């Protein structure tokens, strides 16, 4: 696949990834290399990367615990201390090998260690390939509140090797698919339709859809890198989805993956779009049916509605205390900075549950 060149960095694919990485290392004067992994990618993905790394530089591996609950400042502190103990300096290179937690946290650590060292994201999950590793958002959670601490700084390169997807469970693959479905809903109805026909997709189709999804995000980010206007559209489904994810993060029996929570958020926010912007009712029903077909339906008791709504006050899109949503005029036509009432949000939960 042809590399995607952004304003600041390149995104390399599959067989071209490792030659591009070798060239990058050879053409820069790095002192050493640090690879950040989690307890999953250490076993499942690191051996392949190490076999492909053609360098005489010292390579150190730093491992963190897997899971959103470890995407914290405390984890960063451990990584910063380890970097210091192992002699990392401003000429060190950091490779973030993992899913969204590793690329988000690893990017934040790299951007802040000695005021910034170069880093490359090597996403190993579908979610991180099409979303987390692209666009320069780096950061960690503050308690149960998602991504409250962070910085926008693009990586120096992204390597997308879809062979790593073979290490994922079907649940993790579905989680990543949610962000791709979102890209279709905010940008391109034809793309959304292709993704909705999952049973007909081949592995080759998936590679192309991943490529197309990255292009959609890349184009939006380049027009609005610091999320003042258009980039906010990438948060469709996330205002409610992040609140749902945060609320259930500490409920081990009902903890949701990011994409699972966003899938619910997209159904709820499509309902709000119908009520507030006249989004077509037939398409609202179709999105609900398509989404539940893939993700099933979880039980959200009415007692949870208000605590979830309360968490939305921490959403980063909020202005002067107003909870701002991204809603849809139609598929491919998002509208940012929309507000609504708690009563209508509660009705959206009931629409999802019934």
Automatic annotation (TrEMBL):
<keyword id="KW-0520">NAD</keyword>
<dbReference type="Pfam" id="PF24621">
    <property type="entry name" value="DHQS_C"/>
</dbReference>
<keyword id="KW-0479">Metal-binding</keyword>
<dbReference type="GO" id="GO:0003856">
    <property type="term" value="F:3-dehydroquinate synthase activity"/>
</dbReference>
<feature type="domain" description="3-dehydroquinate synthase N-terminal">
    <location>
        <begin position="62"/>
        <end position="174"/>
    </location>
</feature>
<keyword id="KW-0170">Cobalt</keyword>
<dbReference type="InterPro" id="IPR050071">
    <property type="entry name" value="Dehydroquinate_synthase"/>
</dbReference>
<dbReference type="InterPro" id="IPR016037">
    <property type="entry name" value="DHQ_synth_AroB"/>
</dbReference>
<comment type="function">
    <text>Catalyzes the conversion of 3-deoxy-D-arabino-heptulosonate 7-phosphate (DAHP) to dehydroquinate (DHQ).</text>
</comment>
<keyword id="KW-0456">Lyase</keyword>
<keyword id="KW-0862">Zinc</keyword>
<feature type="domain" description="3-dehydroquinate synthase C-terminal">
    <location>
        <begin position="176"/>
        <end position="318"/>
    </location>
</feature>
<keyword id="KW-0547">Nucleotide-binding</keyword>
<dbReference type="InterPro" id="IPR030963">
    <property type="entry name" value="DHQ_synth_fam"/>
</dbReference>
<protein>
    <recommendedName>
        <fullName>3-dehydroquinate synthase</fullName>
        <ecNumber>4.2.3.4</ecNumber>
    </recommendedName>
</protein>
<dbReference type="InterPro" id="IPR030960">
    <property type="entry name" value="DHQS/DOIS_N"/>
</dbReference>
<dbReference type="Pfam" id="PF01761">
    <property type="entry name" value="DHQ_synthase"/>
</dbReference>
<dbReference type="InterPro" id="IPR056179">
    <property type="entry name" value="DHQS_C"/>
</dbReference>
């Amino acid at each position: 696949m042809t590399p995607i060149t952004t304003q600041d960095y390149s995104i390399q694919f599959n067989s071209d990834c490792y030659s591009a990485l070798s060239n990058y290392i050879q053409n820069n004067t790095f002192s050493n290399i640090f690879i950040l992994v989690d307890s999953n990618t250490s076993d499942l993905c690191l051996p392949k990367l190490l076999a492909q790394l053609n360098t005489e530089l010292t390579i150190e591996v730093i491992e963190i615990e897997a899971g959103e609950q470890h995407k914290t400042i405390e984890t960063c502190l451990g990584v910063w201390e380890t970097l210091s103990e192992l002699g990392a300096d401003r000429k060190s290179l950091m490779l973030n090998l993992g899913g969204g937690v590793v690329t988000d946290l690893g990017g934040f650590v790299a951007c802040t260690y000695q005021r910034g060292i170069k880093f490359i994201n090597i996403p190993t999950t579908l979610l991180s390939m099409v979303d987390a590793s692209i666009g320069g958002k780096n950061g960690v959670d503050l308690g149960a509140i998602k991504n409250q601490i962070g910085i926008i700084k693009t990586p120096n390169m992204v390597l997308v090797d879809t062979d790593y997807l073979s290490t994922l469970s079907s649940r993790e693959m579905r989680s990543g698919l949610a962000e791709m479905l979102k890209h279709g809903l905010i940008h391109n109805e034809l793309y959304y339709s292709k993704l909705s026909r999952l049973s007909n997709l081949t592995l080759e189709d998936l590679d192309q859809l991943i490529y197309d999804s990255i292009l959609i995000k890349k184009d939006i980010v380049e027009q609005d890198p610091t999320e003042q206007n258009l980039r906010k559209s990438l948060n469709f489904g996330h205002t409610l989805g992040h609140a749902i994810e945060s609320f259930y993060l500490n409920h081990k029996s009902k903890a949701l993956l990011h994409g699972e929570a966003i899938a619910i958020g997209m159904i709820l926010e499509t309902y709000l779009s119908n009520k507030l912007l006249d989004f077509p009712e037939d398409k609202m029903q179709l999105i609900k049916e398509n989404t539940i077909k893939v993700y099933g339906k979880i039980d959200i008791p009415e007692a949870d509605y208000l605590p979830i709504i309360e968490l939305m006050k921490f959403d980063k899109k909020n202005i002067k205390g107003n909870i701002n949503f991204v809603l849809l005029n139609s598929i491919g036509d998002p509208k940012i900075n929309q507000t609504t009432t708690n009563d209508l949000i509660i009705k959206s939960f009931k629409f999802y549950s019934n």
